[in-house]
Write a structure and sequence with these properties.
Length: about 290
């Protein structure tokens, strides 16, 4: 049985996220899931510089399992466990071992996996530092964690246009876009969770659409629509949406008439601590005099 946090006391409604992923996989996922496939490919490529092979890996927040397929395909992983918040997503997975699991309440024993990967899922957790701690505990010593998640610049064009339109039409605004992680905080989050040798980097993918309505339809098809607990529960008025679309086109449309949508991707890498890893020198242990360099 999957356990989820009570949605009325947290930032995100986790049950709604699971339901929207279910609708996404039952819809036209082949059309709308391409971004997850692309980022999964880029994330898996990070293992190509590592000669190690991992006996047992976990694909956490897997959706249809794109990351797991790349990990198996590049020969770096021998056995794979696929886990997701949505049971419907797991039904569509081709993995041999699937687990219905919430990133906020991992059901795995300590030191279970040699590798844990998560592709564009952890940005929906209410307690990202807590989830990272659980992931680190699930890794064997010297086990590797790799992840991607949406960064703070994601959908900044859509957010600004919705805010401007709602203020103009209604004189107020409601939360519409998730408060994504800042890349400057990502490394410290890994350190706080107990990961060794943390590494973070960022990538930007810009997609183009005919209009704001096509973008919003894409987000629904991805299962990435607004899931904030404090979101507006009633339908957004047509006047607000039409005005937001007008502003979007006026401010951002290119010469081709298409509007851009920014997706900032933050990549995280960290290892579960092990005595074989490089250790920082103790203060005063350096052998080079700074005067000889300057």
């Amino acid at each position: 049985m999957m356990t989820t946090a009570p949605s009325d006391s947290y930032l995100f409604d986790r049950r709604l996220i699971a339901a929207r992923r279910g609708r996404a996989i039952r819809g036209d996922w082949a059309r709308h899931g391409f971004l997850f496939d692309e980022v999964a490919d880029r994330l898996a490529e990070r293992l190509l510089d590592i000669t190690q092979t991992y006996e047992l890996a976990l694909d956490l927040g897997a959706r249809s399992g794109a990351l797991g397929r790349y990990l198996i395909g590049n020969g770096r992983v021998k056995q794979l466990v696929t886990a997701d918040l949505s049971a419907d997503m797991l039904k569509a997975s081709t993995a041999s071992a699937v687990v219905s699991a919430d990133e906020e309440f991992l059901p795995f024993k300590a030191e279970s996996f040699d590798l844990v990967g998560s592709n564009l899922s952890l940005h929906w957790t209410n307690d990202l530092p807590g989830s990272l701690v659980q992931i680190r505990r699930s890794l064997k010593p010297d086990g590797l964690f790799i992840a991607s998640l949406f960064g703070i610049e994601t959908l900044n064009e859509l957010k600004s246009c919705l805010v401007e339109a709602e203020l103009e039409v209604r004189g107020g605004m409601s939360p519409r876009i998730s408060p994504f992680t800042d890349v400057r905080d990502a490394g410290s989050l890994l350190q706080r969770a107990g990961f060794a040798l943390p590494v973070t980097d960022v990538d930007v993918i810009t997609l183009k659409y005919q209009n704001a309505f096509a973008l919003m339809q894409e987000l629904r098809g991805m299962g990435e629509a607004n899931a904030l607990v404090e979101r507006q529960k009633t339908m957004t008025g047509r006047t607000v949406l039409m005005r937001a679309a007008e502003i979007y086109h006026e401010k951002f449309a290119g010469e081709d008439g298409l509007i851009p949508a920014t997706f900032q991707i933050i990549y995280l890498t960290g290892w579960a601590p092990h005595e074989s890893q490089q250790q920082p020198l103790r203060p005063g242990a350096g052998q080079t005099n700074l005067k000889d360099i300057l």
